[in-house]
Amino acid sequence: MDPLKNSDCQKQKADYQPQGKQCGRREFLKGAARVAAMGGAAMLTGCGTDMFGSKEERSLRFKEYFKKNYRLMTQEEKEQTVRRLERLAKIRNKVDVQMSTKEPIEGVLFGYAFNVTRCEGFMECVAACVKENNLDRKSNTQYIRIFEMEHGQMSPEAGDGKYFHQVPVEDHFYMGVQCFHCESAPCIKACPTKATWKEPDGIVVVDYDWCIGCRYCMAACPYYGRRFNWNDPVVPKEEMTKKQHYLGNRMRAKGQMEKCTFCVQRSREGRLPACVEACPTGSRVFGNLLDPKSEIRFVLKHKKVFRFKEDLGTDPKFWYFID
Amino acid sequence: METTQENVVVENSHKKGIISFVTDVIRWNLTGGIGYQLYLCGLAAMVMLGIYAYSVQTNLGLSATNMSDIVSWGFYIGNFTFLVGVAAAAVMLILPAYMFKDRDLHKVVIIGEGVANGALVMCLLFITADLGGPLKLWHLIPGIGIFNWPSSLLTWDIIVLNGYLALNLLVPAYILYCQYNNREPDERKYRPFVFLSIFWAFSIHLVTAFLYQGLPARPFWNNPLMGPRFLASAFAAGPALITVVLVIVHTATTFKIEKETFNKLRLIIVISAIINLIMLFSEIFKEFYLPTHHSLPAIYLYFGLKGSSALVPWIWTAISLNLLGTLTLIWNPGKNNPKVLFPACILLFVGIWIEKGMGLIVPGLVPSPLGEVIDYAPSWVEVCVALGILAVGMLVVTALIKPALIIEQRFEKGKASR
Fold first, then answer.
1. Partner residues linked to A111 by β-bridges
2. Residue ranges of domains in chain B, CATH in brackets
C-alpha cells in the first residue's frame, strides 16, 4: 500500500534472510529442542513446552526479554522490537500483523464525552471494543462497562452492570464507564517501574512488556479502568485485528496489565475509536480538546457536563452530558 | 586481653575464622535428634508442595488463584501485610535490649531478630508470588531498569524491606561472629546500626501502611489511622509470635528462658493490644455512627453486603480471638506460665493475622469502585504456595536461631569460667 509499509516489508525480508539459509539445520534443531524439552519438562513443569521454540524464535524472545522500556527506546529500537513482535506472531500464531509505533500528533489532546440521555444500552460499543482491541475471549475481558440505572441517581455504583435483557428498559437510563485517561492519574503515580504513563496526546498507556504485574495501579484506580491478564489471552486467529499499535491492541500475555487506549492504533491515524464508531445512538463523542472547532469542544461549551468522582481530583478527560 | 581469651577456651578446640564459622553453622543446622530431623523433613515437604503449586500458577497464570479484576489482591498480599508487622515487631525487643540494656530481653533479642528475618523473607516471597511477571523483576533495578522512586510507594517498600533485612542480618551476624571467636562484640561498631534498625522497623510498617493509606480510590484504606494501627497490631502480634517461639525453645532445648522475660514480653503485648483495640473501636465508631458510601467496605466486612458475606465469620472470629487473647494476657492466670502464655499468644496472633491479612486487603477492594460486590476465598494454589512460603520462613528462623543459641550458650559458658 503506502511506500512506508512497503519499505518495512523489504527490510523485514532482508533481516531474515540469514536465518533462511539455516533452514536445513532447522529440522535438526527442532529435534534437539524436542529432546531438550522432554528432558527439561520434568524439571520445569511450570514453564510449559512453549519455552522451547525454534532457534529463531528463541533468539527473538531472548532479545524481547532484554529490551528497554518503550519510552527509552530510540526510533530504531522501536522499529526493531515491532519487527520482532510481528515475526513472533507469524511463527507462533501464523498471523500477519502490522504493528505501528506511530507517535502522538502535535497539537492534539484527546477527550471523550458520553451522552447519558441518548445511550440505550445496546452494548455495540463493548462488542466493537473487544474485537478491535483483541481482548481475551477466554476470560471475557471488556474495557467498557455499561450500567443500567434507575432515574434519581447519577453514579454507576447504584446501577446494574450485569443486565441481560432487552433494552432499553422503560424508566431507566444507561451510563458507560471505561478508562477516563485522567490528567493526574493515580495509576501512573503508583506504578513502581514506570510501565504506565500519559502520552503527550493525553492517552494513558501501558508498556505491556515492561509491566511486572504487581497490580498496584489497579488498586489505585478509582474507576475500575484497568484490566489484568489473569491467563494467557485467547483470540481466535480469524477474529484478530491485525492492524496494531505497540501501545494499543497488540496481543498481551498473561501477567500483564492492560486498559483502554482510546484505540491509539486508530485515533493517531485520525480515525475514531471503535466504540464511538460502533455506537448506534450517537451517544459517544471523541475529539481533539485543543481544536476549538471539534465536536467535543462544542459539547463542553454548550451542554451541561459532569465528571465521575470529581472529588478525587483525578481530572478525567471523560465527560458525561445530558441533552 | 586477646591472649587471655584464647587461653580460656580450652574445651572449645574449634578453629577461628569465617570459614569455620560458616561450616559450623551449617553443621549445627543439619545435626539434631530424630525429632529435629523429622521437623526438617516436614518443612521440606511443605516447601515441595509450595513449589508444585507455584509451578501450576506459572503455567496457568494468576488465574490459578481466585483473584479477579475486582479482588485484585488477596491471600498473598494479606499475608505479606501481616508479616511486615511481625518483622517490624522485633524492634520491641531490640529497643529495650540494646538501648535500655535490659538483660532479660538482651538474652532473647537474637531470637527476635531471627523471627524478624524469617518474616521478611516470607514478605519478599509473598510479593514475588503475587507478581504477574516475576522474571521481569529486573525492571525495578536502577540502572538497568526504572525504579519509580519517590513517586511509587511500592518502591519505598522495596527499599525499606530489603534494608531492614540487611540490618537485621548484619548486626546479629557480627555479634555472633565475635562471640563465636570468644570476643566481646564492640558496641561502638554495631550501636549505630542498631539505632538505624530501630528507626527502620517503624518505617517498614508505616511505609507498608502508606501503600494502602495513600489511595483515595479505596475509602476503607484511605484512613490516617491505618499507619498507627498497623504499628500497634504489629507490636502485639510480633511479640506474641516471639513468645510462642520462646516457649518452644524453652521446652525443646537446653536454652532456658526466665519468667521475667516472659513477663516483660507479656506487658509489651498487652499494651500494644489495648492500643490496637482502642483504635479498632475508633474506626468502627466512625464507620457506623453515620454510615456513608465510604462505609460500604466496613459494612461488607462486618455484616455482609448485597448477599455476599464471606468475610463476616472471619472478622468476628478475629475480634473474638483478639479480645480473648488480650484479656487472658491481662488477667495472666498462669502467672507467666509458658503453658498459659502459649495458647493465649496463639489466639492473639491468629486474631491479628485474620484482621490484618484478609480482613484488611479484601474489604479495601470490595465493593469495587463501580459498586460491585463479589466474595473471595483463596484457591488451593494460593493456600499451598502460602504453606510453602511459611515453611521457608520457618526454615530460615530455625537456621538462624539454632546456631545462634549454641554460640551464645558457649560464649556465656566461656565467660563464666573465665
1. A287
2. 14-417 (1.20.1630.10)
Q: How far apart are CA B100 and CA B106, in angstroms?
A: 10
pLDDT tens per residue, range B251-270: 988 888 999 999 999 999 99
Chain B stretch 137-196, residues whose beta carbon is closer than 8 A to a beta carbon of chain A:
137, 139-140, 145-148, 151-155, 158
- List pLDDT tens digits, range A153-176: 888 888 999 999 999 999 999 999
ipTM of the complex: 0.91
Distance CA B122, CA B87 (A): 10
Q: For B323-329, which contacts have Cβ atoms below 8 Å and span 24 or more sequence positions?
A: B323/B277, B324/B351, B325/B240, B325/B273, B325/B349, B325/B351, B326/B236, B326/B270, B326/B273, B326/B274, B326/B277, B329/B266, B329/B269, B329/B270, B329/B273
> How many Cβ atoms are within 10 Å of B319's Cβ, its own excluded?
18
Subunit contact A159:B371, Cβ cutoff 8 A: yes
A212 near B CB under 8 A: yes
Residue type, B81: T
| Sign of the dihedral defined by the CA atoms of residues B344, B348, B351, B353, in that order | negative
| Residue A205 is assigned to a structural domain of this protein | yes
Q: A257-259 and A226-228: which strand pairing?
A: antiparallel
Question: Helix, strand, coil proportions of chain A in percent (round to 5)?
Answer: 40, 15, 45
Q: How far is B154 from A196, CA to CA, in rounded Å?
A: 14
Domain contains A43: yes
* Closest of A21, A93, A14 to residue A57, by C-alpha: A93
Q: Is B230 on the interface with A (CB under 8 A)?
A: no
Please classify residue A152 by burial: count the beta carbons closer than 10 Å to its beta carbon, then call 0-12 exposed, 13-18 middle and 19+ buried: exposed
Question: How many other C-beta atoms can be found within 10 angstroms of the C-beta atom of residue A222?
Answer: 22
Residue A123 lies in a domain: yes
